[in-house]
Amino acid sequence: MRFPPERRTAALRSGRFYLDVESVQAQGLIGWWPLGIHGGDAIDKDYSQFHNPGVRSSPSTQVVRHPKLGGIRTLSFNGSSDIVTFGSSNLVLASGQPFTMSVWVNITSASLIAGAFNIGDNDTNQGPHLSNQGGSGWRFAIWGDGIVESTLDHSQDQWVHLVGTYDGTDGRLYVNGVLGGGPTAFTFTGTDGTAEIGRLNSGGSYWSGFLSDVRLYRLACPPSVVNQIYQEPLGLVYPLGMRGTHDGNNLRAAGMLNKFGSMKGGISGGRYGAAMAGGMSG
Protein backbone atom coordinates (compact mmCIF):
# COMPACT_ATOMS: atom_id res chain seq x y z
CA MET A 1 0.00 0.00 0.00
CA ARG A 2 1.21 3.49 -0.81
CA PHE A 3 0.21 6.48 1.23
CA PRO A 4 -1.77 9.18 -0.61
CA PRO A 5 -0.19 12.54 -1.46
CA GLU A 6 -1.68 14.49 1.45
CA ARG A 7 0.51 16.73 3.59
CA ARG A 8 2.49 14.81 6.19
CA THR A 9 3.72 16.17 9.51
CA ALA A 10 5.63 14.68 12.39
CA ALA A 11 5.04 15.31 16.06
CA LEU A 12 6.15 14.15 19.48
CA ARG A 13 3.24 12.94 21.58
CA SER A 14 3.52 11.57 25.10
CA GLY A 15 7.15 10.68 24.60
CA ARG A 16 6.58 8.77 21.37
CA PHE A 17 6.97 9.80 17.76
CA TYR A 18 4.16 9.57 15.24
CA LEU A 19 3.70 10.45 11.61
CA ASP A 20 0.23 11.85 11.00
CA VAL A 21 -1.25 11.75 7.53
CA GLU A 22 -3.82 14.49 7.04
CA SER A 23 -6.60 13.15 4.85
CA VAL A 24 -10.35 13.12 4.34
CA GLN A 25 -10.50 10.28 6.88
CA ALA A 26 -9.04 12.61 9.52
CA GLN A 27 -11.42 15.53 8.93
CA GLY A 28 -13.88 15.95 11.79
CA LEU A 29 -12.43 13.00 13.71
CA ILE A 30 -12.92 13.54 17.47
CA GLY A 31 -12.35 10.00 18.72
CA TRP A 32 -10.38 7.10 17.23
CA TRP A 33 -9.78 3.92 19.22
CA PRO A 34 -8.02 1.18 17.19
CA LEU A 35 -8.24 -1.07 20.29
CA GLY A 36 -4.87 -2.69 20.27
CA ILE A 37 -3.92 -2.66 16.60
CA HIS A 38 -0.99 -0.37 17.44
CA GLY A 39 1.19 -2.85 19.31
CA GLY A 40 2.92 -1.56 22.42
CA ASP A 41 0.49 1.28 23.16
CA ALA A 42 -2.31 1.32 25.72
CA ILE A 43 -5.12 -0.84 24.40
CA ASP A 44 -7.72 1.90 24.87
CA LYS A 45 -5.59 4.75 23.52
CA ASP A 46 -7.32 7.44 21.44
CA TYR A 47 -5.34 8.41 18.33
CA SER A 48 -7.44 11.44 17.41
CA GLN A 49 -6.04 14.90 18.09
CA PHE A 50 -7.99 15.01 21.38
CA HIS A 51 -6.50 11.87 23.00
CA ASN A 52 -9.65 11.08 24.96
CA PRO A 53 -8.65 8.58 27.67
CA GLY A 54 -10.56 5.36 28.12
CA VAL A 55 -11.13 2.94 30.99
CA ARG A 56 -11.07 -0.75 30.13
CA SER A 57 -13.12 -3.14 32.24
CA SER A 58 -11.81 -6.65 31.67
CA PRO A 59 -11.62 -7.14 27.86
CA SER A 60 -8.58 -9.23 26.97
CA THR A 61 -6.45 -8.99 23.85
CA GLN A 62 -6.28 -11.66 21.21
CA VAL A 63 -4.62 -12.03 17.82
CA VAL A 64 -7.22 -12.62 15.11
CA ARG A 65 -7.47 -12.52 11.34
CA HIS A 66 -8.91 -9.34 9.79
CA PRO A 67 -10.00 -9.22 6.11
CA LYS A 68 -8.31 -5.87 5.47
CA LEU A 69 -5.41 -5.89 7.93
CA GLY A 70 -4.39 -9.53 8.18
CA GLY A 71 -3.40 -10.76 11.64
CA ILE A 72 -4.16 -8.10 14.26
CA ARG A 73 -4.15 -7.83 18.04
CA THR A 74 -7.50 -6.50 19.24
CA LEU A 75 -9.99 -6.70 22.11
CA SER A 76 -12.10 -9.77 22.86
CA PHE A 77 -15.41 -9.08 24.66
CA ASN A 78 -17.01 -11.80 26.81
CA GLY A 79 -20.69 -10.88 26.38
CA SER A 80 -21.33 -10.34 30.09
CA SER A 81 -19.13 -7.63 31.62
CA ASP A 82 -16.41 -6.42 29.22
CA ILE A 83 -16.61 -2.75 28.18
CA VAL A 84 -14.41 0.25 27.45
CA THR A 85 -15.79 3.60 28.68
CA PHE A 86 -14.93 7.19 27.83
CA GLY A 87 -15.92 10.59 29.11
CA SER A 88 -14.67 13.91 27.74
CA SER A 89 -15.97 17.33 26.80
CA ASN A 90 -14.30 16.74 23.43
CA LEU A 91 -16.91 14.06 22.70
CA VAL A 92 -19.95 16.27 23.36
CA LEU A 93 -22.29 16.64 20.38
CA ALA A 94 -24.82 19.49 20.29
CA SER A 95 -28.48 19.07 19.40
CA GLY A 96 -28.83 18.56 15.66
CA GLN A 97 -25.05 18.20 15.20
CA PRO A 98 -24.17 15.94 12.26
CA PHE A 99 -21.99 13.00 13.27
CA THR A 100 -20.62 9.63 12.16
CA MET A 101 -20.02 6.47 14.19
CA SER A 102 -17.82 3.71 12.78
CA VAL A 103 -16.70 0.29 14.08
CA TRP A 104 -15.46 -3.07 12.82
CA VAL A 105 -17.44 -5.87 14.50
CA ASN A 106 -17.14 -9.64 14.81
CA ILE A 107 -19.90 -11.30 16.86
CA THR A 108 -20.01 -14.89 18.12
CA SER A 109 -23.74 -15.29 17.50
CA ALA A 110 -25.88 -13.34 15.01
CA SER A 111 -28.95 -14.01 17.19
CA LEU A 112 -27.65 -11.85 20.05
CA ILE A 113 -28.92 -8.39 20.92
CA ALA A 114 -25.68 -6.61 21.72
CA GLY A 115 -24.20 -3.13 21.55
CA ALA A 116 -20.94 -2.42 19.76
CA PHE A 117 -20.58 1.35 20.23
CA ASN A 118 -22.83 3.91 21.93
CA ILE A 119 -22.37 7.60 22.66
CA GLY A 120 -23.92 9.94 25.19
CA ASP A 121 -26.57 9.46 27.85
CA ASN A 122 -27.12 5.77 27.25
CA ASP A 123 -27.69 5.37 30.99
CA THR A 124 -31.08 6.89 30.21
CA ASN A 125 -31.32 5.16 26.83
CA GLN A 126 -31.01 8.36 24.82
CA GLY A 127 -27.71 7.86 23.02
CA PRO A 128 -27.00 6.96 19.39
CA HIS A 129 -25.63 3.46 18.98
CA LEU A 130 -24.42 0.78 16.57
CA SER A 131 -25.56 -2.69 17.56
CA ASN A 132 -26.62 -6.18 16.56
CA GLN A 133 -30.35 -6.83 16.94
CA GLY A 134 -30.67 -10.57 16.42
CA GLY A 135 -32.93 -11.45 13.49
CA SER A 136 -33.40 -7.76 12.64
CA GLY A 137 -29.72 -7.50 11.75
CA TRP A 138 -27.41 -4.55 12.28
CA ARG A 139 -28.83 -1.34 13.76
CA PHE A 140 -27.97 2.35 13.88
CA ALA A 141 -30.41 4.18 16.13
CA ILE A 142 -31.14 6.95 18.57
CA TRP A 143 -33.37 5.57 21.31
CA GLY A 144 -36.98 6.51 20.55
CA ASP A 145 -35.93 9.00 17.87
CA GLY A 146 -35.00 6.97 14.81
CA ILE A 147 -33.96 3.45 13.80
CA VAL A 148 -32.19 2.13 10.71
CA GLU A 149 -31.62 -1.62 10.36
CA SER A 150 -30.04 -3.88 7.76
CA THR A 151 -29.48 -7.62 7.28
CA LEU A 152 -26.80 -6.95 4.67
CA ASP A 153 -23.77 -9.20 5.37
CA HIS A 154 -25.39 -10.17 8.67
CA SER A 155 -23.32 -13.08 9.91
CA GLN A 156 -21.41 -14.36 12.93
CA ASP A 157 -17.71 -15.07 13.35
CA GLN A 158 -16.95 -12.72 10.47
CA TRP A 159 -15.57 -9.16 10.43
CA VAL A 160 -18.14 -6.59 9.27
CA HIS A 161 -17.72 -2.82 9.05
CA LEU A 162 -20.61 -0.71 10.37
CA VAL A 163 -21.04 3.04 9.94
CA GLY A 164 -23.93 5.21 11.08
CA THR A 165 -24.22 8.78 9.81
CA TYR A 166 -26.57 11.58 10.82
CA ASP A 167 -26.62 14.67 8.58
CA GLY A 168 -28.79 16.87 10.78
CA THR A 169 -32.01 15.38 9.40
CA ASP A 170 -31.65 11.73 8.43
CA GLY A 171 -29.81 8.66 9.66
CA ARG A 172 -28.11 6.14 7.36
CA LEU A 173 -26.52 2.76 8.06
CA TYR A 174 -23.62 1.53 5.92
CA VAL A 175 -22.45 -2.09 5.97
CA ASN A 176 -19.07 -2.97 4.48
CA GLY A 177 -18.87 0.33 2.66
CA VAL A 178 -22.32 0.37 1.03
CA LEU A 179 -25.67 1.81 2.12
CA GLY A 180 -27.63 -0.82 4.01
CA GLY A 181 -30.52 1.25 5.35
CA GLY A 182 -31.97 4.76 5.27
CA PRO A 183 -32.26 7.62 4.89
CA THR A 184 -34.62 7.66 7.85
CA ALA A 185 -35.69 10.78 9.74
CA PHE A 186 -33.89 11.10 13.09
CA THR A 187 -34.38 13.49 16.00
CA PHE A 188 -31.09 14.16 17.77
CA THR A 189 -30.95 16.19 20.99
CA GLY A 190 -27.21 15.92 21.63
CA THR A 191 -24.88 13.89 23.87
CA ASP A 192 -23.14 14.42 27.20
CA GLY A 193 -19.59 13.46 26.17
CA THR A 194 -19.69 9.84 27.34
CA ALA A 195 -19.17 6.78 25.17
CA GLU A 196 -19.05 3.02 25.58
CA ILE A 197 -17.59 0.24 23.49
CA GLY A 198 -18.91 -3.25 24.13
CA ARG A 199 -22.49 -2.87 25.39
CA LEU A 200 -25.79 -1.34 24.34
CA ASN A 201 -26.60 0.62 27.51
CA SER A 202 -26.49 0.46 31.29
CA GLY A 203 -29.11 -2.29 31.25
CA GLY A 204 -26.70 -4.69 29.57
CA SER A 205 -26.72 -6.30 26.10
CA TYR A 206 -22.95 -6.79 26.13
CA TRP A 207 -20.96 -7.62 23.02
CA SER A 208 -19.65 -11.15 22.57
CA GLY A 209 -16.79 -11.29 20.10
CA PHE A 210 -14.30 -8.75 18.78
CA LEU A 211 -14.42 -4.99 18.14
CA SER A 212 -11.80 -2.84 16.42
CA ASP A 213 -11.08 0.53 14.78
CA VAL A 214 -13.81 2.54 16.56
CA ARG A 215 -14.30 6.12 15.37
CA LEU A 216 -16.46 9.16 16.11
CA TYR A 217 -16.69 12.14 13.76
CA ARG A 218 -18.32 15.53 14.31
CA LEU A 219 -19.69 15.51 10.76
CA ALA A 220 -21.64 13.20 8.48
CA CYS A 221 -19.12 11.36 6.32
CA PRO A 222 -20.26 11.17 2.69
CA PRO A 223 -20.57 7.75 1.01
CA SER A 224 -17.17 8.07 -0.67
CA VAL A 225 -15.39 8.53 2.67
CA VAL A 226 -17.40 5.74 4.32
CA ASN A 227 -16.26 3.40 1.56
CA GLN A 228 -12.67 4.63 1.90
CA ILE A 229 -12.65 3.92 5.63
CA TYR A 230 -13.91 0.42 4.86
CA GLN A 231 -11.44 -0.24 2.06
CA GLU A 232 -8.42 1.18 3.89
CA PRO A 233 -8.95 0.90 7.66
CA LEU A 234 -6.26 2.85 9.50
CA GLY A 235 -4.45 3.40 6.22
CA LEU A 236 -4.82 7.14 5.76
CA VAL A 237 -4.45 8.33 9.32
CA TYR A 238 -2.28 5.53 10.64
CA PRO A 239 0.27 6.85 13.17
CA LEU A 240 3.61 5.21 12.52
CA GLY A 241 5.81 4.41 15.49
CA MET A 242 9.20 6.02 14.83
CA ARG A 243 12.62 5.03 16.01
CA GLY A 244 14.89 7.99 16.51
CA THR A 245 15.98 10.76 18.83
CA HIS A 246 14.56 14.05 20.01
CA ASP A 247 16.80 16.77 21.40
CA GLY A 248 13.99 18.93 22.78
CA ASN A 249 13.66 21.00 19.64
CA ASN A 250 14.21 18.74 16.69
CA LEU A 251 12.92 15.37 15.64
CA ARG A 252 15.19 12.96 13.82
CA ALA A 253 14.34 9.46 12.70
CA ALA A 254 15.93 7.09 10.22
CA GLY A 255 13.79 4.29 8.92
CA MET A 256 10.29 3.47 10.04
CA LEU A 257 8.25 0.36 9.48
CA ASN A 258 4.65 -0.62 9.92
CA LYS A 259 2.49 -3.45 8.63
CA PHE A 260 1.68 -1.53 5.46
CA GLY A 261 5.26 -1.01 4.28
CA SER A 262 8.40 0.95 5.01
CA MET A 263 9.57 4.52 4.86
CA LYS A 264 12.94 5.14 3.30
CA GLY A 265 15.17 8.01 4.29
CA GLY A 266 14.63 10.11 7.38
CA ILE A 267 12.71 12.98 8.92
CA SER A 268 14.03 16.08 10.55
CA GLY A 269 12.44 19.26 11.74
CA GLY A 270 10.79 21.02 14.64
CA ARG A 271 8.83 19.50 17.49
CA TYR A 272 5.48 20.01 15.78
CA GLY A 273 6.46 19.93 12.15
CA ALA A 274 8.98 18.22 9.96
CA ALA A 275 10.27 17.96 6.45
CA MET A 276 10.44 14.54 4.85
CA ALA A 277 13.60 13.35 3.17
CA GLY A 278 13.42 10.28 0.99
CA GLY A 279 10.21 8.49 0.12
CA MET A 280 7.73 5.86 1.15
CA SER A 281 7.14 2.42 -0.25
CA GLY A 282 4.85 -0.45 0.54
Characterization of this structure:
By secondary structure, the chain is mainly β. It has two domains: about 1-20 and about 240-280, no CATH class; about 25-230, Jelly Rolls, CATH 2.60.120. It is built from one helix and 24 strands. The strands form five sheets. Strands 3, 5, 6, 8, 13, 14, 15 and 19 form an eight-stranded antiparallel beta sheet that branches. Strands 4-7-16-9-10-11-12 form a seven-stranded antiparallel beta sheet, with no helix packed on it. Strands 20, 21, 22, 23 and 24 form a five-stranded antiparallel beta sheet that branches. β1 (about 10-15) and β2 (about 15-20) form a beta hairpin. The longest helix has 9 residues, at about 225-230.
Q: What is the straight-line distance between the termini?
A: 5 Å
CATH topology of the largest domain: Jelly Rolls
| Number of helical regions | 1
Question: According to CATH, what is the class of the largest domain?
Answer: Mainly Beta
Radius of gyration: 19 Å
Low-confidence stretches: 1-22, 235-282
The CATH architecture of the largest domain comes to Sandwich
Derived from helix and strand composition plus strand pairing, the structural class reads: mainly beta
Defining key terms:
Jelly Rolls, single chain, 282 residues, mainly beta, globular, 2 domains
Write the layout of secondary structure elements.
Blueprint: E1 8-13, E2 16-21, E3 29-33, E4 54-57, E5 60-66, E6 70-78, E7 83-87, E8 99-107, E9 113-119, E10 128-133, E11 138-142, E12 146-150, E13 160-166, E14 170-175, E15 178-185, E16 194-197, E17 199-201, E18 204-206, E19 208-217, H1 223-231, E20 244-246, E21 250-258, E22 261-270, E23 275-277, E24 280-281
Antiparallel strand pairs: 1-2, 3-19, 4-7, 5-6, 6-19, 7-16, 8-13, 8-19, 9-10, 9-16, 10-11, 11-12, 13-14, 14-15, 17-18, 20-21, 21-22, 22-23, 22-24
